[in-house]
Amino acid sequence: MAEEGPKDDVVLEVRDLAKSYPVRSGVVLKRTVGQVQAVDGVSLTLRRGRTLGLVGESGSGKSTLARVLVGIEKPTRGTVLVDGEDVSTMSRAARRELRRSVQMVFQDPYTSLNPRMSVGDIVAEPFRIHPDAVPAGGRRQAVAELLELVGLDPDHVNRYPHQFSGGQRQRIGIARALAVKPRVLVCDEPVSALDVSVQGQVINLLADLQDELGLSYLFIAHDLAVVRHIADEVAVMYLGRVVEQGVDRDVYDASGHPYTRALLSAVPVPDPAAQADDEVLLLDGDPPSPADPPSGCRFHTRCWLARQLASGTGPEAADAVETDGGPRVPRRCATDDPVLVPLGRHDAHAAACHFVGAATAVSAARRPDPATVPDPATVPDPRGS
Amino acid sequence: MEIEIQAGTEAGVPAPETAQERTVGTTLLEVSDLAVEFRTDDGTVRAVDGLSYRVEAGRTLALVGESGCGKSVSSLAVMGLLPATAHVVAGQVRYRGDDLLAMPRTRHRAHCGRHVAMVFQDALAALNPVHTVGYQLTESLRARAGMSRRESRRRAVELLDLVKVPNAAQRIDEYPHQFSGGMRQRVMIASALAMDPDVLIADEPTTALDVTVQAQVMRLLAEIQAERQMGLVLITHDLGVVAGVADDVTVMYAGRAVERSAVRDLYAAPAHPYTRSLLRSVPRLGTRDDGHDDAHDGARRGRLPVVPGRPPSPGHVPSGCPFHPRCDMARDVCATDRPPLAEVAAGRSSACHFADELLGGDRG
Ligand SMILES: Nc1ncnc2c1ncn2[C@@H]1O[C@H](COP(=O)(O)OP(=O)(O)OP(=O)(O)O)[C@@H](O)[C@H]1O
Ligand SMILES: Nc1ncnc2c1ncn2[C@@H]1O[C@H](COP(=O)(O)OP(=O)(O)O)[C@@H](O)[C@H]1O
Ligand code: SF4
Ligand code: SF4
Ligand SMILES: [Mg+2]
Ligand SMILES: [Mg+2]
Fold this sequence. Notes:
By secondary structure, chain A is α/β, with parallel strands linked by helices. Chain A has helices spanning 62-69, 92-101, 119-129, 139-149, 166-178, 196-213, 224-228, 248-253, 258-266, 272-277, 304-310, 315-318, 331-335, 356-363, and strands at 10-25, 31-47, 51-55, 77-82, 85-86, 102-105, 184-188, 216-221, 233-238, 241-247, 321-322, 328-329, 341-342, 350-351. Chain A has an eight-stranded mixed beta sheet with strand order 6-7-8-3-9-10-14-13, sandwiched between helices. Chain A has a four-stranded antiparallel beta sheet with strand order 2-1-4-5. Chain A has a two-stranded antiparallel sheet with strand order 11-12. In chain A, helix 3 (119-129) packs parallel to helix 5 and helix 4 (139-149) packs across helix 5. The longest helix of chain A is centred in the middle third of the chain and has 18 residues, at 196-213. The relative contact order of chain A is 0.12. Chain B is 31% helix and 22% strand. Chain B is built from 13 helices and twelve strands. In chain B, the strands form two sheets. Chain B has an eight-stranded mixed beta sheet, sandwiched between helices. A four-stranded antiparallel beta sheet of chain B has the order 2-1-4-5. In chain B, helix 4 crosses helix 5 (149-162), helix 5 crosses helix 7 and helix 7 (181-192) packs parallel to helix 8. The longest helix of chain B is centred in the middle third of the chain and has 18 residues, at 211-228. Chain B is globular. The complex binds adenosine-5'-triphosphate (ATP), adenosine-5'-diphosphate (ADP), iron/sulfur cluster (2 copies) and magnesium ion (MG) (2 copies). The site of one iron/sulfur cluster has 13 residues of chain A, from helix 11. One magnesium ion binds next to helix 1 of chain A.
């Protein structure tokens, strides 16, 4: 690949992006009683021909970010730059062009395709919004080529979604997204609803298309193992924030944030021996509501490292505080909001934790020693006795 | 809160009158040569074709296969809950020796309501949005166990505690939409456990959930199974998910069992090419299978291993070995001769003409 300057390499960039939704109560006269901060100050960079993986639990704000990126929703704060140009200051025509160049592949292949439309009509749908992408006379041919491109039989153009399997439906969704020749695909959990045996087929297709068409992907998933197979860089989100980011190798093999480590520990390992040795469940319960995020570090209510430090012998333990209803954690975790700080090897690798040093130290063995992780919910060994 | 539960002796609740001792290894449920057919516009098609498996007290059986291979249909047949267009055309389902299929349907269902419980695949959608979680749990307890309102409420809180719903006593009055996906799945598990069943069949209990919640739910099921010495059947398409919790695995393809092995044997060396393909397709953390581990060099990564093509639909099952169009080991004989499920090693069966090659035999 040609060496390009770091700046013109960037196809999509977001700076300090935030999106909040009003929380309303009441049935007739809805009053706004608060704000859900679905995305709260996210900055990301997507390079040409590359894949940025975005990972986090349900509710962490991944889909919200995706919707803002493709222009379905307006951000509450922050900027989206395409090819270095601020979207909010563009002319209407330029913004339309931008919408064309950033397309979305949706999570659920079962509900994202209109069951009453033929496959041909579904794939051609974007032409109605962007009629100049392909001249009217060439559209039949274009649809046939798109089906071919994603590995479907062009003769099936008159079939309906229910006549296809989940994996094939996801191919239809990808063909539709590619119809208007975008440069960026935002793929929102494109394989989560598919059988594992089919996930690889869709991921391989995306990788081939990237090679062939020079596409850039924002690839959203909740499973770090799936992301590893496609992403060049990874960003981990928790409650609307990016808590760690970096190139694939740094994030997986030298993760700096306890949340990343916890996500890694949740990945199912297809090896009974490994699982028996490694019965650690680092993440307990659900994430707190983004309408009322915890003080200080948003992760402190579920952080294994904070609990470990608070029950240890170091200075953090002496200074630990009781949080209401939550575990004892170092004072800073409960009061100060950590910012992303660069971590060693590559400057692109950063994590937002007051104790990154401690996290990476335990990180040497990829997962922490179960004995040092007190977790009330995991006390009885399920396989024991 | 930590609740200790012994089979049938939960605090305040009389043991179900028919509760029997669960000794590890006792056969609780035995499915033999089960065949189920559907009437469709294209005629009669067979969705389950000669399936057998056994569920023992204190053990977990994983039933694994791709979408459409008959996992749900066979389980519904066990429960007596097949839709009207389907019927069992062969086989037995024995619960502690009694053939459930020989019973009138109402008795079959009553038996299952009590002793064999199921968490359904679409459970997350099954909760009624207009009633509180507590209402739905207590109504079913009152109907099934004849409990009073008070008693059923106390029991419902106990059940929610058991499945580790935090603040169960408060959350019981909330509506399903106030519960996350993982918490709703816990409620469905609680509901299935209401009668202290001998056998729990969980149909893809984590497929719609995050990996983190999936890990929590799997752990919960394993804990409850171990505490109660239940027989647990875990249905999944993902061999990664069950490695840590199953004792035995039955792999299904096109309505049939194609491999039956103890969990360690299967993961160490699959005895069927389909099992091997499924195992390879599980995305792994440690590898990128591409020798390309520096994201700055612009090189393209290799391809993920996949099972090519897709499984046949009932009525279009290929001749010979049903897996042959997708099998990387297929030879001429595979297109014509159907391999029977046969013992290939101590305690292991496989339906492949060349299983011994997979297991390190020196033929070929
Ligand atoms: N239109 C909306 N109105 C109010 N709240 C919303 C809206 N859309 C999203 N939210 C809230 O914002 C938060 C982030 O939601 P989002 O869908 O972006 O999460 P996600 O990371 O995509 O999760 P999942 O893995 O479940 O898809 C959630 O708490 C969600 O309830
Ligand atoms: N109501 C039905 N009518 C006709 N065929 C059905 C019906 N329900 C299921 N099937 C077929 O039976 C097969 C097995 O289905 P199922 O048991 O749901 O698969 P699994 O649970 O393994 O994904 C599928 O090929 C499916 O198409
Ligand atoms: S700042 Fe404290 S609570 Fe937050 S991730 Fe680090 S150790 Fe955990
Ligand atoms: S019998 Fe033949 S086609 Fe079938 S699994 Fe074995 S090798 Fe493959
Ligand atoms: Mg989402
Ligand atoms: Mg099913």
